[in-house]
């Protein structure tokens, strides 16, 4: 059926198929003096088009269906071995995204030349098949022993994307051997070394370039910023400006990112102003960088003003603002922006949805979270980032059953997936389940990271599982985590302190290279829990000498330590120090600690007066601390006064009835205690049951932590 059509076509006058003059793009290219090779290629191409109508037919192919039909005609009429037709087929299959078909055609070329190899290599590259680019390049080297600057540029870009610095070094050697690299190759070398983390090698290549282009400057600046050398990146940007090279959108985007990493709001604003002044167009990359910079520097309102002033807000800038609100601690603003009808035409992507889940988790808003979950399913947004954020959201909203279900549906888990559920179980009081998940994670050959270790140590601390936690400590020591990771070190000393092993906690503390306020507070609190007030006070004084600014949590810890050791004067001194010197506004926790301090010491009238003068309304924790002191010192009269006040304030809260019942029971007034519990029943009030922890043989289920790991 196909053959007569071709025959009819070929029987038509030949001049109808002949292109009498080059197409417009060829005429444009030939307006400048061409090289001899270009002249020969153009002449050969035109001659072939004039004598072979199949080239003309291939040029008419617009889709894979028409291309396959013409390919079939070539096979039927014995033209499939024509080299130019084969190269044209390779290009067309590549253009239509059918790379496997392009490679099959290429493999049929009997003696492919450099031009044919470059055609195939180009389509691997344009379809982001970077591993195939490197493999095909090695095949080219074995077959032809010839390369040029175009091939070098493509392969260096592939090495950059795959972070294959070893292959990149081999290419660099060939570049030096070949000599006369052009600017694209040198820029590719700078970019490759920078993206592979070899900043020094990148700078060596950069310094050898006589007149670097703006792309080369941008690659080197970006290499510094991406590898944690933001200050060096800004210094190089200043040097670029001194050479009168004008940056582009990507240059300024990278510079703004450097300002964000350094928290340099003033410099970031200057760059933003310079971009506006010079009229540089704000593309998505630059807008996202500026918004992110403002958010990370604490100027969220400036970021929002910029977003509102944009003529066209796209998915990238809109999502950047939502991410900024979420990461900056403004989850309500993130949800408002997401639900604003002004942006109703923008369809969210996976990053948007994941950020909204994070905002819902911060707000403990499962209602909105479920709605967004439904939207994500409708839009088909169910990648790894979305699934991990969703598990985290349900866990933090106390919906651990839903989190478990979603975890089970994820086919391709990563370490973040495991961390989300383990952390969720720990925070929801399911500490044994968290350890069970950790055991399962290790049995499936997943290697825990710092986040995993922190969550599991927290579970061990809650369970008092000293042996399991110690095994985990051994693993951490082998991996070098306690000394180099402040979060892991802090959680380790907190774990030992809660398990009563203050000596081990102090060893961890002393071995940490870096300590922050939380670390100092944890160690101070550990000493306080074990009744070592002198140790707590000495640590606090050392903290002041190290010029580490205490947080409000630090004062909570040290006032609590004063309460457990009966140091009322020291407690008052630190409370006043917190308010007057460091200008902290006391929170409910501080008031509870102060009332507990006074009540434990028997100064109940002073505690009651302090409670009445509090600027916040007392709750169960405040009354509980006071009533505990009343029980310790047999002051039932003051206890009844407190009970009557708390029932007036909170008549529907079951916890206050329980406190009242315990107060009566502590003085042997069982009838009154029974009457209070009956009153709870008649008012249909109930208190969540408590639980106790029983030490189990957890380490038997824990696989050896030193086993080799493998990621899937």
UniProtKB/TrEMBL annotation:
Principal localization reads plastid
Start-end of each PPR repeat = 213-243, 314-348, 414-448, 516-550, 653-687
State any GO BP term from the record. RNA modification
One cellular-component annotation, GO: chloroplast
Lineage top rank: taxon: Eukaryota
Signal sequence span is none
Pfam families in the record, alphabetically? E_motif, PPR, PPR_2
In which compartments does the protein localize?
Answer: Plastid, Chloroplast
**Which keywords are on file for this protein?**
Chloroplast, Plastid, Repeat, Transit peptide
Q: Which GO terms describe its molecular function?
A: RNA binding
Q: Does the keyword Plastid apply?
A: yes
Family statement: Belongs to the PPR family. PCMP-E subfamily.
Question: In its UniProt entry, what is this protein called?
Answer: Pentatricopeptide repeat-containing protein
Q: Which organism is it from?
A: Escallonia herrerae
């Amino acid at each position: 059926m196909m053959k007569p059509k071709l025959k009819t076509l070929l029987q038509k006058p030949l001049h109808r198929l002949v292109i009498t003059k080059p197409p417009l793009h060829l005429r444009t290219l030939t307006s400048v003096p061409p090289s001899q090779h270009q002249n020969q290629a153009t002449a050969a191409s035109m001659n072939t088009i004039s004598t072979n109508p199949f080239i003309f037919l291939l040029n008419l192919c617009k889709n894979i269906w028409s291309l396959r039909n013409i390919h079939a005609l070539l096979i039927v009429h014995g033209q499939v071995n024509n080299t130019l037709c084969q190269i044209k087929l390779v290009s067309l299959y590549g253009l239509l995204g059918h790379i496997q078909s392009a490679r099959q055609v290429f493999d049929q070329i009997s003696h492919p030349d450099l031009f044919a190899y470059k055609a195939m290599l180009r389509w691997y590259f344009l379809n982001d098949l970077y591993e195939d680019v490197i493999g095909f390049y090695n095949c080219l080297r074995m077959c032809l022993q010839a390369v040029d600057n175009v091939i070098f540029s493509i392969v260096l870009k592939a090495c950059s994307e795959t972070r294959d610095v070893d292959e990149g070094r081999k290419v660099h050697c060939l570049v030096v051997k070949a000599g006369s690299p052009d600017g694209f190759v040198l820029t590719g070398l700078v970019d490759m070394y920078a993206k592979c983390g070899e900043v020094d090698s990148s700078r060596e290549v950069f310094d050898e370039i006589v007149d670097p282009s703006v792309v080369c400057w941008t690659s080197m600046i970006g290499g510094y910023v991406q590898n944690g050398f933001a200050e060096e990146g800004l210094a190089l940007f200043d040097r670029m400006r001194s050479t009168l090279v004008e940056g582009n959108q990507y240059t300024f985007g990278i510079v703004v990112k450097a300002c964000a990493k350094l928290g340099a709001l003033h410099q970031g604003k200057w760059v933003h102003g310079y971009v506006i002044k010079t009229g540089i167009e704000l593309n998505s990359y630059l807008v996202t960088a500026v918004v992110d910079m403002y958010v990370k520097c604490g100027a969220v309102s400036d970021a929002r003003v910029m977003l509102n002033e944009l003529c066209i807000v796209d998915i990238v800038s809109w999502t950047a603002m939502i991410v900024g609100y979420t990461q900056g601690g403004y989850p309500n603003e993130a949800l408002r922006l997401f639900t604003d009808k002004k942006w109703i035409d923008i369809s969210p992507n996976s990053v948007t949805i994941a950020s909204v889940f994070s905002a819902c988790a911060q707000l403990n808003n499962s209602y909105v979270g479920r709605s967004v979950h439904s939207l994500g399913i409708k839009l088909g947004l169910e990648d790894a980032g979305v699934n991990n954020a969703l598990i985290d959201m349900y866990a933090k909203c106390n919906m651990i059953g839903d989190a478990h279900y979603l975890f089970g549906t994820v086919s391709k888990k990563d370490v973040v997936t495991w961390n989300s559920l383990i952390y969720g179980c720990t925070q929801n009081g399911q500490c044994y389940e968290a350890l069970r998940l950790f055991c399962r994670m290790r049995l499936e050959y997943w290697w825990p990271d710092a986040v995993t270790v922190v969550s599991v140590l927290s579970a061990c601390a809650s369970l008092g599982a000293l042996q399991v936690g110690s095994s985990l400590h051994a693993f951490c020591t082998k991996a070098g985590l306690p000394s180099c990771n402040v979060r892991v070190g802090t959680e380790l000393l907190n774990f030992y302190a809660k398990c009563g092993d203050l000596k081990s906690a102090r060893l961890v503390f002393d071995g940490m290279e870096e300590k922050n306020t939380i670390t100092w507070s944890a160690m101070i609190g550990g000493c306080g829990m074990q009744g070592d007030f002198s140790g707590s006070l000495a640590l606090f004084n050392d903290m002041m000498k190290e010029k580490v600014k205490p947080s409000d949590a630090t004062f909570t810890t040290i006032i609590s330590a004063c309460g457990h050791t009966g140091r009322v004067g020291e407690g008052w001194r630190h409370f006043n120090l917190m308010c007057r010197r460091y200008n902290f506004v006391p929170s409910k926790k501080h008031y509870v600690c102060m009332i507990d301090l006074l009540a434990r010491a028997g100064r109940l009238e002073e505690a009651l007066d302090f409670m009445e003068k509090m600027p916040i309304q007392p709750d169960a924790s405040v009354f509980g601390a006071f009533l505990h002191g009343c029980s310790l010192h047999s002051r039932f009269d003051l206890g009844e006064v407190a009970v009557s006040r708390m029932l007036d304030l909170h008549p529907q809260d079951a916890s206050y009835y329980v406190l009242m019942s315990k107060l009566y029971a502590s003085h042997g007034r069982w009838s009154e205690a029974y009457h209070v519990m009956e009153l709870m029943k008649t008012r249909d009030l109930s208190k969540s049951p408590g639980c106790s922890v029983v030490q189990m043989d957890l380490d038997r289920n824990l696989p050896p932590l030193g086993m080799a790991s493998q990621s899937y």
